[in-house]
Amino acid sequence: MQKRHKRLLVALLMLFGLSLLVPGAIVIFHPEPAGLNTQMADQANQFRALHGMMAGLGVMACLACYRIERERTLVIGIGLTLALVVAARVYSLFSEGVPDWPTLFYLVIESILALIFLRYPPPADNTGALLD
């Protein structure tokens, strides 16, 4: 793996991971109060769980930076996850309408990261492929 390729992947994974981990953890531990309404409590629980998954994906992206050469499958998995997020956002554009510019900016960034992680993951390690 070339140093430039490794540095790019590590920087993007770390940026992506921290951008999910920090806000996800904040919302998990400092959510809006749900009140006494059962439906609102269910929605708050679901919202908190989704942010927990978001923080978990951030942790996985940060951990992939530790030994990036061995994390090809994880990087591709993160790329596929981002591709699904992009597909959901594009579908939402057509079904709910055009959101504000920050959401469109996220769509562009997520699209670029998905393309990079899917098109340029760490190379496959073939050293252990042939066992005598």
From TrEMBL:
<feature type="transmembrane region" description="Helical">
    <location>
        <begin position="103"/>
        <end position="120"/>
    </location>
</feature>
<dbReference type="InterPro" id="IPR025597">
    <property type="entry name" value="DUF4345"/>
</dbReference>
<keyword id="KW-1133">Transmembrane helix</keyword>
<feature type="transmembrane region" description="Helical">
    <location>
        <begin position="73"/>
        <end position="91"/>
    </location>
</feature>
<dbReference type="Pfam" id="PF14248">
    <property type="entry name" value="DUF4345"/>
</dbReference>
<keyword id="KW-0472">Membrane</keyword>
<protein>
    <recommendedName>
        <fullName>DUF4345 domain-containing protein</fullName>
    </recommendedName>
</protein>
<feature type="transmembrane region" description="Helical">
    <location>
        <begin position="48"/>
        <end position="66"/>
    </location>
</feature>
<keyword id="KW-0812">Transmembrane</keyword>
